[in-house]
């Protein structure tokens, strides 16, 4: 973010996220120049009904309102939220997730792979630094919730390890 325009930058990023949703875009990238050494680079990417940015909190899309009263069938949908799963591995930072150590290399893990506690399961690049994300527990990778090169937010679900 820029040095002096924090509130204005947040409003600008929120406007970009709204623009992304309103125009049914999947990605938007903008560079805002404030001066010689002061600029703001924003990349907003839409994935699976979630809008994420590299500098702001995710904005959830509103689901269409139901005309009838909620039924018992609606309850399992809430249970399927990966962020609520007890084996969910979440992002400890904002950045770009990579599933392999370098482009074209074998991914760190795949669905069905057994991992040991502390084993690197992916990398998150933040501020030109590659941060290895370890498995918080031993188990089997049940789902990988991010794609290679995907922008992630703090607390975003990355994978499920049971």
From TrEMBL:
<protein>
    <recommendedName>
        <fullName>Biotin carboxyl carrier protein of acetyl-CoA carboxylase</fullName>
    </recommendedName>
</protein>
<dbReference type="InterPro" id="IPR000089">
    <property type="entry name" value="Biotin_lipoyl"/>
</dbReference>
<dbReference type="InterPro" id="IPR001882">
    <property type="entry name" value="Biotin_BS"/>
</dbReference>
<keyword id="KW-0444">Lipid biosynthesis</keyword>
<dbReference type="GO" id="GO:0003989">
    <property type="term" value="F:acetyl-CoA carboxylase activity"/>
</dbReference>
<comment type="pathway">
    <text>Lipid metabolism; fatty acid biosynthesis.</text>
</comment>
<keyword id="KW-0276">Fatty acid metabolism</keyword>
<keyword id="KW-0092">Biotin</keyword>
<dbReference type="GO" id="GO:0009317">
    <property type="term" value="C:acetyl-CoA carboxylase complex"/>
</dbReference>
<dbReference type="Pfam" id="PF00364">
    <property type="entry name" value="Biotin_lipoyl"/>
</dbReference>
<dbReference type="InterPro" id="IPR050709">
    <property type="entry name" value="Biotin_Carboxyl_Carrier/Decarb"/>
</dbReference>
<dbReference type="GO" id="GO:0006633">
    <property type="term" value="P:fatty acid biosynthetic process"/>
</dbReference>
<feature type="domain" description="Lipoyl-binding">
    <location>
        <begin position="86"/>
        <end position="162"/>
    </location>
</feature>
<dbReference type="InterPro" id="IPR001249">
    <property type="entry name" value="AcCoA_biotinCC"/>
</dbReference>
<keyword id="KW-0275">Fatty acid biosynthesis</keyword>
<dbReference type="InterPro" id="IPR011053">
    <property type="entry name" value="Single_hybrid_motif"/>
</dbReference>
<comment type="function">
    <text>This protein is a component of the acetyl coenzyme A carboxylase complex; first, biotin carboxylase catalyzes the carboxylation of the carrier protein and then the transcarboxylase transfers the carboxyl group to form malonyl-CoA.</text>
</comment>
<keyword id="KW-0443">Lipid metabolism</keyword>
């Amino acid at each position: 973010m820029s040095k002096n325009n924090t509130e204005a930058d947040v409003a600008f990023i929120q406007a970009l996220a709204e623009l992304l949703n309103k125009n049914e875009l999947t990605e938007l990238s903008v560079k805002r120049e404030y001066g010689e050494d002061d600029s703001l680079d924003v990349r907003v990417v839409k994935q699976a009904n979630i809008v994420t940015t590299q500098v702001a909190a995710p904005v959830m899309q509103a689901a269409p309102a139901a005309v009838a009263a909620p039924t018992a069938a609606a309850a399992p949908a809430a249970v399927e939220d990966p962020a609520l799963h007890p084996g969910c591995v979440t992002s400890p930072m904002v950045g770009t997730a990579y599933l392999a150590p370098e482009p074209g290399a074998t991914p760190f893990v795949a669905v069905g792979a057994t991992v040991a506690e502390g084993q690197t399961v992916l990398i998150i690049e933040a501020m030109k630094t590659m941060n290895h994300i370890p498995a918080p527990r031993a188990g089997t990778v049940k789902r990988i919730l991010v794609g290679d090169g995907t922008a992630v937010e703090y607390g975003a679900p990355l994978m499920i390890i049971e």
